[in-house]
Amino acid sequence: MIRKKIIITTGILLIIGILTIVYGVTKGWFNKKSKASGTPTVLLRVDPIPVQIAENNTFSYTLKANPNQNLNIIGYLLTINFDNAKVQITSIEYKTGVISQDLGQDTSNKDTVNQLGKINIQAEISTAQGELLLQNTDVNLVTISGKALITGIPQLLIDNFKLYQINSDSTLTEISGGVGEFSTSSSSSQSSSSGSVASSSSSSEQSSLSSSSSNASTSSSSSQESVKVVIKIKYRMQGVLNWIANQSALTKLKILKNGVEIDNDSISFIASLSSDYLWHGQFEQRLVPSNDYVFLVKPDKHLQRKVCSLSGRDSSTLYDCGENTITLSSNTTDLDLSGLTFFAGDITGEQGIADGKVDSLDYVMIQLIIQNNTGKDPTKVAKADLNYDGIVDTQDASLIIEVWQKGINQDEK
Ligand SMILES: [Ca+2]
Ligand SMILES: [Ca+2]
After folding, report:
1. Distance of CA 318 from the midpoint of ligand 1 (Å)
2. By CB distance 3.0 to 4.6 Å, which of 76, 229, 260, 297 could disulfide with 163?
3. 7 or 142, which is more confident?
């Protein structure tokens, strides 16, 4: 009798226990950790950034993944498309995991790969517990080597990048990778890859309006005296289609005279958004009157543009000044750049600051803000609200895509 009671009691407790676990799983009790850390995102990039390769020369690129949080993966896949009339692949080595037999392709499939102009990468981790990718740390996935059949920049386009995470309850989560630099280069055959040229912005942000050009003026004053020039500037930012009062943007400026930067100190001024949707600002500088000036203007969060005339110009492509220069002679000069669009999106870079390129790092930063639902956080707005409407959202992300589609993704110099 007592034994029977114990069995029944144990049975009931067991059922309650199982029900509790089932309920807990459906309520996500055991999943709190991953919820709290936000949506996992993985950025894929190529190292080094492709540059021009001479005919018959070889190249070797490693695909590096960088997750925004620790991930325990059991596999990944991606597709790489290339122009088989321009490059041939000689080896495909898996650096993380091993090839999934009959699904992925490696060096043994290079004939098929070269025939089709397409590589299917599919890897699995051999251990059941998966492989840990550390937060904000590069991990090498695959190294692709090949040969250029004609001189040019090897264009390898990544598509369909996914990783598979194994969770603590043994379920799997599919994680889509961030937009890689490969795919950004697909939209701009000439300009993007050269975005690898380092553009170290060597500047103190707050040198403001003051005229600190004494070096330049004294050194050149032997031929001509410098005068104080006030330059009033107005310009347009991509995507700013609404007027919100009191919007301001730090704008950096470099002045070139006869192709040489006149001052080591960078100039910056604050531009304000007016109801004409143009940004207005002004600065003053001591300059020698001359006809060979060129300005480099870089508004906050935007790409730098090269300005070679006092009036605006069409802005659909990167600009070559040719022989054009600006003549500065009077004390007040209007620089009307309303015909020129400043392209949005340079908000970060590998060092965490704007780096003169609009690439996947900038895009991913915006996506993370959206995913973490922090688009109204004032620090995020200051950092990443590209269209100055007071929130970081998909419109800001779209502006970056738009820039890529135009094939413009770097500072003009
Ligand atoms: Ca950038
Ligand atoms: Ca916005």
Report:
1. 17
2. 76
3. 142
